[in-house]
């Protein structure tokens, strides 16, 4: 927002909003205290306590305190605020509408700029002094092409399951929007997002009663995608499956990079280098610094095997909560049936995409966990009232 509205950054709106919301929640602590008994909260609290207790034993505690704690807090507030504030079904629905709407806007804005003015925002090296353009977030946004692809794949399950069951015009709007999103995904040239899309497509196919129609639609979509891709884009996606492509070396390099990240993490296997210090650890060990391309390796580097255990325990608590409520939702309203189906798909998409994307100090796992808690408590409360 400060990049869009001149002078807004002076008042630090994010910090101000965080303080106001936190203060209001503290005033209602007796009303919301029961929510902290939820298994996801307990698992995440154990992880946070582990971070605090092990801080003196990490490699770079000073960097953690000076630079990285604030970034981590900005991410984890999505868990607390979503779980604690969304205490009515109306608020939950409104938050989903705002979240999905904002993410769709983040995609359509750079796509519009690309079509109207040739905007790309990023590029990738192909070798031999050759570069290929890649679509990233809008000029006022902060996301790179891989992150834009991640945003696209995240919103597709929400749009599909909440819009497709509706009337004809809504279906047409959804299909038109889906076409734009998939075209934007092609322009990002994000192989990780493409793999995540396959996960989402598999769940949609598995749940569908019209599998033949989906297969036909899929074939048409693939043919259309191949037709609109240029040579570099086509080569980029084919490099996932073929070693004969020009960009296969970068795909192989990504795998090698992931392996090296795990090796780096195992050089300090117990407590790691410290929260948010992946780049610093790489620079001090290898002499160069690049962002992590694997969340699990990132967690191992920053928190060691101890931290990896506690974070995976947190992720498993989210999985168990979603599975439990997915079964219970069969006797609940249509809204909760759809929501828990979508959240379950998003969970597995996140789990796969995290192989190719960092995430310990990113919002997405925490937002999902907060939504799972809020939706679970609301659905169970509604069921009890109806009983």
List the helices and strands and how they pair.
Elements: H1 13-27, H2 29-32, H3 39-54, H4 61-85, H5 89-117, E1 121-127, E2 130-135, H6 145-163, H7 168-188, H8 191-207, H9 211-228, H10 231-238, H11 248-265, H12 278-286, H13 295-328, H14 334-353, H15 364-386
Antiparallel strand pairs: 1-2
Helix pairs in contact: 1-4, 3-13, 4-15, 5-6, 6-7, 6-8, 6-14, 8-14, 11-13, 13-14, 13-15, 14-15
Please name the defining characteristics of this protein.
single chain; 387 residues; mainly alpha; two-stranded antiparallel sheet; globular; transmembrane; O-antigen ligase-related domain-containing protein; membrane
How much helicity do the residues have?
A: over 70%
Q: Averaging pLDDT over every residue, what do you get?
A: 91
Q: What shape does the CA trace take?
A: globular
Strand order in the largest sheet = 1-2
Task: Work out the count of structural domains.
Answer: 1
Topology, number of strands: 2
Spans of at least 5 consecutive residues whose pLDDT stays below 50 are none
N→C terminal distance: 45 Å
The helix-strand sequence is HHHHHEEHHHHHHHHHH
How is the main sheet built? Answer: 2 strands, antiparallel
Structural class: mainly alpha
How much strand?
under 5%
CA radius of gyration: 22 Å
Counted by DSSP, the helix tally is 15
């Amino acid at each position: 927002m400060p990049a869009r509205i001149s002078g807004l950054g002076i008042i630090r709106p994010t910090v101000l909003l965080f303080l106001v919301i936190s203060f209001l929640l503290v005033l209602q602590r007796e009303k919301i205290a029961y929510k902290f008994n939820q298994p996801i909260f307990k698992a995440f609290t154990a992880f946070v306590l582990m971070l605090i207790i092990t801080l003196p034993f990490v490699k770079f505690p000073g960097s953690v305190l000076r630079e990285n704690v604030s970034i981590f807090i900005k991410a984890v507030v999505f868990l607390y605020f979503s779980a604690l504030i969304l205490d009515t079904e109306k608020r939950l629905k409104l938050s989903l509408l705002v979240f999905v709407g904002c993410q769709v806007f983040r995609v359509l804005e750079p796509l519009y700029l690309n079509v109207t003015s040739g905007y790309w925002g990023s590029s990738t090296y192909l070798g031999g002094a050759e570069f290929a353009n890649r679509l990233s977030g809008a000029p006022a946004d902060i996301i790179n092409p891989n992150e834009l692809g991640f945003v696209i794949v995240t919103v597709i399950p929400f749009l599909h399951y909440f819009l497709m069951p509706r009337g004809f015009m809504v279906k047409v709007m959804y299909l038109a929007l889906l076409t734009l999103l998939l075209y934007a995904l092609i322009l990002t040239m994000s192989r990780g997002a493409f793999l995540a899309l396959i996960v989402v497509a598999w769940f949609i196919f598995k749940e569908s009663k019209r599998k033949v129609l989906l297969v036909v639609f899929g074939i048409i979509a693939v043919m259309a995608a191949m037709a609109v891709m240029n040579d570099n884009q086509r080569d980029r996606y084919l490099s996932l499956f073929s070693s004969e492509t020009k960009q296969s070396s970068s795909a192989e390099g990504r795998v090698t990079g992931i392996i090296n990240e795990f090796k780096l993490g195992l050089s300090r296997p117990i407590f790691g280098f410290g929260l948010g210090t992946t780049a610093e650890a790489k620079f001090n060990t290898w002499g160069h610094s690049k962002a992590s391309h694997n969340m699990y390796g990132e967690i191992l580097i920053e928190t060691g095997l101890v931290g990896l255990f506690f974070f995976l325990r947190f992720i498993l608590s989210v999985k168990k909560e979603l599975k439990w409520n997915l079964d219970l939702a069969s006797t609940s309203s249509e809204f909760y049936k759809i929501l828990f189906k979508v959240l379950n798909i998003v969970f597995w998409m996140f789990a796969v995409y995290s192989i190719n994307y960092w995430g310990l100090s990113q919002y997405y796992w925490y937002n999902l966990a907060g939504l799972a808690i809020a939706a679970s408590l609301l659905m169970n409360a509604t069921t009890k009232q109806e009983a």
